[in-house]
């Protein structure tokens, strides 16, 4: 049958692919990938994709970004040469999203390079989630749908928190828009932490703007990588007498010593979505909670396939159950 | 001193970068090339490249995907840094050897040399029939099993279930390629706990499983990142698992939208033969497979040596649905020195088996001359125990570890001069054809 949804899964996040496939009520297409002993990636496709609507789901496995990316590119290219009708790369956590501008002389704009590479390999459409900078959409000449985890996050806050008690805190000026949007929709108050960042992966001095005394402070960010920022922000909030401190981040990359940092910080909970494989981190970090976003991804795939509007998903969590 | 030219080295082969820079009289461009803690590549070029002619040296060794991404990011950093022209110098082009279906066919990279050798005939007028090598699957044994199983079926006996086809016979052989054998690759599978799933991977019925070909993709990506020119080192023909692409003058060059120059290591290897192999005039040049016949015969012709070929026969057998490869030598090598010529040695299976066959055919000594000595996995260890008396390769990929392990059994030829000269000529707009010359 031509032009059906074919969901291919990269090797970085099989659990998410399985969840998405289950939501869509389809099976993941048969593919396998392995590394030769000389470390080259080899992808084998075990069924026809001719004239099908192909969705390739590949996330960013922390520490293995380049392998995952090459695997994705090879899969896209393989589907293109195998005459797929349309190839959509579903990348819940866009790699290299933080290198999105020429912040110093001769720095690469890697996010742009990735966009070009995806198109060169043959992607006709991109679905991603919570881009670090939404301008990255402009790097593409093909449609790029940037989904938001915000509806899922809002639902989680409403279900688990007492909204009147909360202050939404943005850990940096860049995230202010994201945090204010959540604060507005919850009708909660808002605070902001201003920070100076001398070098990448190093956190500088911080100042709190706003009032958090005796409140539950909810730090909202798009990704938590080394968690240095979060830990410092939490310490700052505690110094300002917040009652409880919670962090919510869409992409839980949690590289390096992130888990230890979180465990030793004054955060009471760290909430992330499952855009990135978490591996054994859940066991190692009892403070961690996970929001499932597979419903949003699956619904985006279904709507894209059927040519329906995706905008509903920007404000609502699809009801699958 | 060459002016207005910048040489930028990747992480894959610092020693080669140093040597090339030394022959050009330059210091390499200073850069930061590390990884962020999340695994993303971080690249900063610290010297100005505005209006410069930049050469990036990166070879496809080590963690190939990281190496490739580093290269692409460096190219794009240079482009945004207003470099006038960016040339990617890839001594070993990543993904150039395209994949065979890796775990199904005998003779493919994941198979291994078996302990048993059948005796297929060597064809040739006036040549005595000789012992050949097979792929380790003793067909007669399999056949007898099958006929037994068939009998069981005919008789309606319940034994049928326990010996379905007799295919599993080969798996019980010690060391047969499988998850437990020392040759097993590191798998990336959907099921991390069970790498064995990969070998049981089944295509949908009625659909022929095929492996993605990444070579063109890599070419596209380099152009897309902004490379204006590509220099790579090869032997002239890339062996691509069945089909051959002549890199010098046909298809592979056509994959690129930018100029591609291929430098030949042939001259180097040829000089090695004339200078280091005693009585080389009596030696035989041997190609370990039909795909490499052209490059081996080119050397044989220009040195005036005799030439022979090892033919890998793949006979599909309807019993097992597996393909069987047996090696047959075409030509006479008895009491002579043999020089095996190949483009790339990775796991080395083809060459090991070829050397074994040559020794069996009465060769006194076996040299293996290979442009790219990747030697992944436990290949160095196995070279020690193989029939190869000497392996000669270039330093297109780092050879220090291999040299330390193999000692006098390995000779490494330096290609930095050739590459440096190519960079110099390319920069000055001089002809590169002198470097392509066959002598």
From TrEMBL, chain A:
<dbReference type="InterPro" id="IPR029099">
    <property type="entry name" value="Pribosyltran_N"/>
</dbReference>
<dbReference type="GO" id="GO:0006015">
    <property type="term" value="P:5-phosphoribose 1-diphosphate biosynthetic process"/>
</dbReference>
<dbReference type="GO" id="GO:0004749">
    <property type="term" value="F:ribose phosphate diphosphokinase activity"/>
</dbReference>
<dbReference type="GO" id="GO:0005524">
    <property type="term" value="F:ATP binding"/>
</dbReference>
<dbReference type="InterPro" id="IPR000842">
    <property type="entry name" value="PRib_PP_synth_CS"/>
</dbReference>
<feature type="domain" description="Ribose-phosphate pyrophosphokinase N-terminal">
    <location>
        <begin position="5"/>
        <end position="122"/>
    </location>
</feature>
<keyword id="KW-0418">Kinase</keyword>
<dbReference type="InterPro" id="IPR005946">
    <property type="entry name" value="Rib-P_diPkinase"/>
</dbReference>
<dbReference type="GO" id="GO:0005737">
    <property type="term" value="C:cytoplasm"/>
</dbReference>
<dbReference type="Pfam" id="PF13793">
    <property type="entry name" value="Pribosyltran_N"/>
</dbReference>
<keyword id="KW-0460">Magnesium</keyword>
<dbReference type="GO" id="GO:0009156">
    <property type="term" value="P:ribonucleoside monophosphate biosynthetic process"/>
</dbReference>
<keyword id="KW-0545">Nucleotide biosynthesis</keyword>
<comment type="pathway">
    <text>Metabolic intermediate biosynthesis; 5-phospho-alpha-D-ribose 1-diphosphate biosynthesis; 5-phospho-alpha-D-ribose 1-diphosphate from D-ribose 5-phosphate (route I): step 1/1.</text>
</comment>
<dbReference type="GO" id="GO:0000287">
    <property type="term" value="F:magnesium ion binding"/>
</dbReference>
<keyword id="KW-0808">Transferase</keyword>
<comment type="similarity">
    <text>Belongs to the ribose-phosphate pyrophosphokinase family.</text>
</comment>
<dbReference type="GO" id="GO:0016301">
    <property type="term" value="F:kinase activity"/>
</dbReference>
<dbReference type="Pfam" id="PF14572">
    <property type="entry name" value="Pribosyl_synth"/>
</dbReference>
<dbReference type="GO" id="GO:0002189">
    <property type="term" value="C:ribose phosphate diphosphokinase complex"/>
</dbReference>
<dbReference type="InterPro" id="IPR029057">
    <property type="entry name" value="PRTase-like"/>
</dbReference>
<keyword id="KW-0547">Nucleotide-binding</keyword>
From TrEMBL, chain B:
<dbReference type="InterPro" id="IPR005946">
    <property type="entry name" value="Rib-P_diPkinase"/>
</dbReference>
<feature type="region of interest" description="Disordered">
    <location>
        <begin position="154"/>
        <end position="183"/>
    </location>
</feature>
<dbReference type="GO" id="GO:0016301">
    <property type="term" value="F:kinase activity"/>
</dbReference>
<dbReference type="GO" id="GO:0006015">
    <property type="term" value="P:5-phosphoribose 1-diphosphate biosynthetic process"/>
</dbReference>
<keyword id="KW-0808">Transferase</keyword>
<protein>
    <submittedName>
        <fullName>Phosphoribosyl pyrophosphokinase</fullName>
    </submittedName>
</protein>
<feature type="domain" description="Ribose-phosphate pyrophosphokinase N-terminal">
    <location>
        <begin position="6"/>
        <end position="99"/>
    </location>
</feature>
<dbReference type="Pfam" id="PF14572">
    <property type="entry name" value="Pribosyl_synth"/>
</dbReference>
<dbReference type="InterPro" id="IPR000836">
    <property type="entry name" value="PRTase_dom"/>
</dbReference>
<dbReference type="InterPro" id="IPR029099">
    <property type="entry name" value="Pribosyltran_N"/>
</dbReference>
<keyword id="KW-0545">Nucleotide biosynthesis</keyword>
<dbReference type="GO" id="GO:0000287">
    <property type="term" value="F:magnesium ion binding"/>
</dbReference>
<dbReference type="GO" id="GO:0006164">
    <property type="term" value="P:purine nucleotide biosynthetic process"/>
</dbReference>
<comment type="similarity">
    <text>Belongs to the ribose-phosphate pyrophosphokinase family.</text>
</comment>
<dbReference type="Pfam" id="PF13793">
    <property type="entry name" value="Pribosyltran_N"/>
</dbReference>
<dbReference type="GO" id="GO:0005524">
    <property type="term" value="F:ATP binding"/>
</dbReference>
<dbReference type="InterPro" id="IPR029057">
    <property type="entry name" value="PRTase-like"/>
</dbReference>
<dbReference type="GO" id="GO:0004749">
    <property type="term" value="F:ribose phosphate diphosphokinase activity"/>
</dbReference>
<feature type="compositionally biased region" description="Polar residues">
    <location>
        <begin position="165"/>
        <end position="175"/>
    </location>
</feature>
<keyword id="KW-0418">Kinase</keyword>
<dbReference type="GO" id="GO:0005737">
    <property type="term" value="C:cytoplasm"/>
</dbReference>
<dbReference type="GO" id="GO:0002189">
    <property type="term" value="C:ribose phosphate diphosphokinase complex"/>
</dbReference>
């Amino acid at each position: 049958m031509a032009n059906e949804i074919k969901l291919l899964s990269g090797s970085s996040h099989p659990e998410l692919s399985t969840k998405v496939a289950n939501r869509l009520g389809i099976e993941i297409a048969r593919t396998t990938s392995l590394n030769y002993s000389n470390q080259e990636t080899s992808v084998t496709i075990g069924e026809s994709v001719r004239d099908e609507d192909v969705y390739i789901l590949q996330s960013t496995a922390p520490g293995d970004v380049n392998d995952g990316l090459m695997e994705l590119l090879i899969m896209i290219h393989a589907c293109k040469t195998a005459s797929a009708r349309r190839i959509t790369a579903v990348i819940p956590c866009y790699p290299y999203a933080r290198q999105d501008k020429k912040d110093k002389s001769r720095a690469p704009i890697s996010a742009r390079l990735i966009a070009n590479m995806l198109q060169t390999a043959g992607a006709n459409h991109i679905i991603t989630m919570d881009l670090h900078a939404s301008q990255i959409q402009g790097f593409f000449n093909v449609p790029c749908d940037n989904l938001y985890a915000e509806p899922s996050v809002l639902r989680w806050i409403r279900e688990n928190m007492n909204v009147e008690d909360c202050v939404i805190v943005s850990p940096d000026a860049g995230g202010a828009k994201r945090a204010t949007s959540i604060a507005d929709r919850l009708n909660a108050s808002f605070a902001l932490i201003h920070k100076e960042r001398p070098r990448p992966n190093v956190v500088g001095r911080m100042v709190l703007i706003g009032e958090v005394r005796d409140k539950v402070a909810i730090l909202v960010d798009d990704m938590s990588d080394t968690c240095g920022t979060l830990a410092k922000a939490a310490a700052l909030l505690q110094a300002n007498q917040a009652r409880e401190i919670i962090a919510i981040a869409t992409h839980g990359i949690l590289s390096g010593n992130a888990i230890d940092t979180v465990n030793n910080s004054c955060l009471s909970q760290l909430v992330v979505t499952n855009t990135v494989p978490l591996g054994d981190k859940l066991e190692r970090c009892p403070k961690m909670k996970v929001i499932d976003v597979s419903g949003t991804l699956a619904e985006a795939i279904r709507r894209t396939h059927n040519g329906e509007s995706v905008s509903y998903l920007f404000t609502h969590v699809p009801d699958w159950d | 001193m060459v002016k207005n030219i910048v040489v930028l080295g990747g992480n894959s082969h610092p020693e080669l970068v140093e040597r090339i820079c030394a022959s050009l009289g330059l210091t390499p461009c200073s850069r930061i090339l590390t990884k962020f803690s999340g695994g993303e590549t971080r690249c900063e070029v610290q010297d100005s490249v505005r209006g410069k002619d930049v050469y990036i040296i990166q070879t496809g060794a080590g963690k190939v995907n990281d190496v490739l991404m580093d290269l692409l990011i460096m190219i794009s950093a240079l482009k945004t840094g207003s470099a006038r022209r960016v040339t990617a110098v890839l001594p070993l082009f990543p993904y150039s050897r395209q994949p065979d279906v890796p775990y199904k066919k005998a003779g493919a990279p994941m198979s291994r040399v078996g302990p048993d050798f059948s005796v297929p005939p060597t064809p040739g007028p006036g040549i005595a029939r000789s012992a050949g090598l097979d792929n380790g699957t003793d067909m007669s044994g399999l056949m007898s099993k099958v006929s037994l199983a068939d009998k069981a079926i005919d008789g309606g006996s319940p034994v049928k279930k326990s010996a379905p086809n007799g295919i599993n016979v080969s798996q019980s052989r010690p060391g047969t390629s499988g998850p437990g054998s020392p040759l097993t690759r590191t798998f990336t599978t959907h099921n991390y706990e069970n790498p064995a799933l990969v070998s049981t991977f089944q295509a949908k019925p009625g659909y022929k499983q095929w492996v993605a070909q990444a070579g063109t993709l890599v070419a596209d990506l380099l152009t897309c990142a902004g490379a204006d020119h590509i220099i790579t080192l090869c032997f002239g023909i890339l062996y691509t698992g069945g089909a051959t692409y002549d890199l010098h003058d046909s298809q592979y060059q056509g994959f690129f939208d930018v100029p591609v120059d291929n430098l030949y290591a042939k001259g180097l290897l040829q000089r090695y033969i004339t200078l280091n192999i005693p009585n080389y005039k009596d030696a035989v040049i041997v190609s370990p497979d039909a795909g490499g016949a052209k490059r081996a015969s080119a050397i044989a012709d220009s040195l005036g040596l005799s030439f022979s070929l090892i033919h890998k026969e793949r006979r599909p057998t309807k019993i097992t649905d597996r393909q069987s490869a047996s090696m047959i030598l075409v030509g006479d090598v008895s009491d002579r020195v043999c020089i095996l010529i190949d483009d790339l040695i990775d796991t080395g299976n083809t060459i090991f088996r070829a050397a074994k066959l040559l020794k069996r055919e009465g060769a006194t000594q076996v040299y293996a001359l290979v442009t790219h000595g990747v030697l992944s996995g436990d290949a160095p260890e196995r070279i020690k125990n193989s029939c190869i008396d000497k392996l000669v390769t270039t330093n297109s990929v780092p050879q220090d570890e291999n040299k330390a392990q193999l000692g006098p059994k390995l000779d490494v030829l330096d290609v930095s001069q050739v590459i440096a000269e190519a960079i110099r000529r390319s920069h000055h707009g001089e002809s590169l054809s002198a470097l392509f010359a066959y002598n």
